[in-house]
Amino acid sequence: MLLLLLLDREQFRVARSGFCKSATPEEEARCGWGQFKDKEKLSIHTLTGHSGKVLAAKFLGSAFLVTGSHDRTLKIWDLKNRSCTETKFAGSSCNDLVTTDSFSFISGHVDKKIRFWDVRTADCTANDIPLQGKITSLDLSKDGKFLLSCVRDDTINLLDLRQNRIVRTFRNDNFKVGCDWSRVAFSPSSSRIAAGSADGSVYIWNINGPLETVLKDPNGSGAAVTAVSWHPFSSTLASVDRAKKCTIWSNA
Which of 48, 45, 58, 44 is nearest to 10 (CA)? Predict the structure, then answer.
């Protein structure tokens, strides 16, 4: 198994197998790797090349990676040679990206645009899709037909990639996007979506439009929820907030 570990600034690490190798004591403490000191650890490669923070990294097929940075570029990396093979100039800081196949990916940017790319061509492959605020994150449906975008105007947009247009917008008077990198996520079946709010709540919508539920820990800090992630085989949901707290929601 390969893992991607985003570091604080201009580099990221690629990790293979089950545990971590070459982590500093601080990294082990932060990520919980210290418990594996006496066991086999990961082989980690650090890939450096961006001049700004790396906000997104995804596998592009089995042999390549694509990364998005606040240096306004997207880079393609060869895993075997551990080197950058191509730099695409987006013209705007990238907050997130998704890959659709071994050649294509989609990026979301601070300039309020979604961009479409193909590694076989130099420029964007389709017209940009402009939204009404900074794009904080993207997520792709299980069948690859729909794209979610979380936007700083406190909305979540559902795009039909077959038509390249917005088909539904999710909003609520109390839902506020808490930061520029707030993450949205499809459920495993792609029938629901989840996103964290600035008040510490997690909002869950049915993909057909209605708000299903709002989750909030009565003993929580009230800090903005910055990311959510569904369990791949159940309705369990994890959320993390700016107070460095992770909450597990069963039967969300």
Answer: 48
Per CATH, is 61-130 categorized as 2.40.40.10? no
Tens digit of each residue's pLDDT (9 = 90 or more) over 123-153: 776 679 999 999 999 999 999 999 999 999 9
β-bridge mates for residue 54, sequence order: 69
% of the chain exceeding 90 in pLDDT: 73
How confident is the model at residue 233, as a pLDDT? 92
d(CA 135, CA 213): 24
Q: Extract the tokens encoding 79.
A: 């895993």
Residue with tokens 């790797």: 33
Grouping H, G, I as helix, E, B as strand and the rest as coil, residue 9 is coil
β partners of residue 168: 158
User: In this model, does residue 204 exceed pLDDT 80?
Assistant: yes
Domain range summary for the chain, segments of one domain joined by +: 1-48, 61-130, 133-252
**Closest to 18 in 3D by CA, of 42, 35, 48, 38:** 42
Q: Is 252 strand, coil or helix?
A: coil
CB atoms within 10 A of CB 2: 12
Q: Model-level pTM? A: 0.84
- C-alpha closest to that of 196 among 172, 169, 178: 178
φ, ψ dihedrals at 68, nearest 5°: -120, 140
CATH topology classification for 133-252: Methylamine Dehydrogenase; Chain H (2.130.10)
* Nearest to 135, CA basis, from 105, 101, 106: 106
